[in-house]
Amino acid sequence: MPSAPHDAGREALLAAAAAFFDEGHFVRELARRVAIRSTSQEAGAAPELRRYLEGEIAPSLAALGFEWRLHDNPVPGGGPLLTAERIEDAALPTVLMYGHGDVVRGQDEAWTRGQGPWTLAVEGERLYGRGSADNKGQHTINLAALALVLQQRGRLGFNLEWLFETGEETGSPGLAAFCAQERERLAADVLIASDGPRLSRERPTVFLGSRGVANFTLELQLRESGHHSGNWGGLLRNPATVLASAIACLVDARGVIRVPALRPPPIPANVRRALQGLVFGGDPGDPAIDPDWGEPGLTPAERVIGWNTLEVLALGAGNPAAPVNAIPPAAKAWLHMRWVVGTDIGRLGEAVREHLAAHGLADVQVGEPELTGATRLDPDDPWVRFTLASLERSTGRAPVLLPNLGGSLPNDVFADILGLPTVWIPHSYAGCRQHAPDEHLLAPVAREALQLMCGLFWDLAEQAGTLPRRG
User: Fold this and answer.
1) Which CATH number fits the domain that encloses residue 319?
2) Paired strand residues for 457
3) pLDDT of 143 above 50
4) Is there a single domain that holds both residue 352 and residue 382?
5) Distance from C-alpha of 131 to C-alpha of 36, rounded to nearest angstrom
6) Does residue 431 share a domain with residue 315?
7) Which of 33, 314, 332, 411 is spaced 20 to 30 Å from 181 by Cα?
8) Sheet holding 422-424, edge to edge
C-alpha cells in the first residue's frame, strides 16, 4: 500500500491522543472501570457484570452517538452481552469491534503492588488493577480513540458496531450462539479488536487469529484399592507406569508430537516469512527458552505460532503428599493441545485411541476432548496490509505481524460464524501478570496504543472508498 502524504489533521489527532493520556484522562476512565468487580468466575457476579455494561459502557457509547442494546445470554447462567451501532452512511465500510467486560478472580490477599485488584494504582510506568490489561484497559484505549476522532472531525467516516460480552474468562458461554442469532445485526466488513499481548513491550503487534485448544484426559483404573508392593510387585500392572508409557507414546521427551494425525500441515510460506527473525521472551521476568524443546527444524517463533503442541497439565496416581509402599489402583493425566489451522482436530479422540491401541495400550481411556477453534487470516489480506501501513505511519517503524496468537481467543466466532476477516491489535505485553495478582498495564504502551488507534481510525475514514467490502 503506498505511503500516505503529510496530513496535519492526523498529526494533530495523534498529539491530542498523547495529551489526553498525559493529562490523566485515560487513567481516570480506566480507574472507574477497574473499580467495578465484574469477575465472571465467582458465584453471584451477575449484578456487577450487568452494571459494567449497562452503567459504564452503555453511557460511554451513547455519548459517542451509538445506539445500544443489552441482551440476555442465550445460554442459561451466561453473562449479559451488549451491542451498539453508529451507522453514518450505508455506503461506508462497517467495522465490528469487540471487548469483554469480565475479569478473573481478584485474588485480593495475594496482591503485593498497588492497592489491591479493585483500585487502579499508578506506580512508575505501571497501572495496577484487575482488568487493567485484560481487557478493560484495552477497550478503554479503543473507546477513547473513537472519542478523540469524533471530537476532532465530528464524524468517524465509517460505520461501527460494538459487541461486549461478560463471559470470556469462563470460556465465552453463549457467544457463538448469540452471534449466530444476531448475524444480520453484526454484519460488517472486518473485525478490529484488542486483546492479548504484543510480541514485546517495545513493538506494536498485529495478529490475525489464534491457535485452538483441545483438552482431554487419559485414565486407567485397574483396581478398587492399592496393594502392598512387596507382596504384589511384579505381579500386578502399575497404572501409573502404564499411563506414563501412554503419554510418552503421544509426545516424546523433547515435546515432539508422535501421533501423525495430531501434527499440522507444513507451515505456509507467507506465515514463515512473517515469523522470520521474531524473538520470543527476553523481557524481565520471562523464563529462559529451552532451545532443544519442541519440533526439530523449526525456529522458536514457528514452534509457538505455526505448530501444534501437546502438554501434560497434571498427572496423578497414589498420594504424592504422603506416598506409601503400595501399587496404586488408578492413574489419570490431563492433557492440553494447542493447534493451528489445518489440523484435523475433529479426529483427535479417535486418533489418540487408535495410536494407543497400536502400541498395546488400548485399555487407557481417552476422555472426550473439549475444543475451541483455530483461526488465521491470510497474512496477505488487504485489511492486514492496511493495518500494518497505518501503524507504521504512526510510529515510523514496522509493526510485528503474527499470523496467529500462540494463545487462544474466541476468534473462531468472528471468523467462522460471522465470516469476517479478523485483525487484532493488542495493547498489553507478556509480563502484564494477567490472571495473576499484580496485573498491570504499561503506561508507555497504553499511550502509544491510543495514538495508534487514533491513526488507524483516521486512515480508515480517509481510505474508506478503497478498502475491501463483503460481497
Assistant:
1) 3.30.70.360
2) none
3) yes
4) no
5) 10
6) no
7) 33
8) 67-71, 81-86, 159-165, 94-100, 190-193, 422-424, 205-207, 400-402
Q: What are the residues facing 84 on neighbouring strands?
A: 68, 162
364: left (phi over 0), alpha (psi -120 to 50) or beta: beta
Domain count, the chain: 2
* Buried residues in 101-127 as b, exposed as e (16+ CB within 10 A): bbbbebbeeebeebebbbebbeeeebb
Lowest model confidence (mean pLDDT) among 5-9, 136-140, 189-193, 370-374: 5-9
Condensed to tens digits (0 to 9), the pLDDT of residues 182-202 reads 999 999 999 999 999 999 999
Q: Give the residue from 353, 372, 391 where a domain finishes.
A: 372
Residue-wise pLDDT for 42-75, tens only, equals 989 999 999 999 999 999 999 999 999 999 999 9
Residues 148 and 87 in one domain: yes
Nearest to 56 by CA among 139, 130, 155: 139
Give the structural domain span for 255. 212-264+308-372
Q: Which of 372, 399, 425 is the endpoint of a domain? A: 372
Model pTM above 0.85: yes
Please check whether residues 400 and 453 belong to one and the same domain: yes
Residue 2 has pLDDT above 70, yes or no: no
Amino acid at 150: L
Q: How is 335-386 classified by DSSP, letter by letter?
A: EEEEE-TT--GGGHHHHHHHHHHHTT-TTSEEPPPEEE--EE--TT-HHHHH
Considering the domain architecture, whether residues 114 and 254 belong to the same structural domain is answered as: no
User: What are the grid coordinates assigned to 80, written together?
Assistant: 449479559
For 27-36, give one letter per residue: b (16+ CB within 10 A) or e. bebbbebbbb
Neighbours of 198 (CB within 10 A): 24
- 447 contacts 18 by C-beta, under 8 angstroms: yes
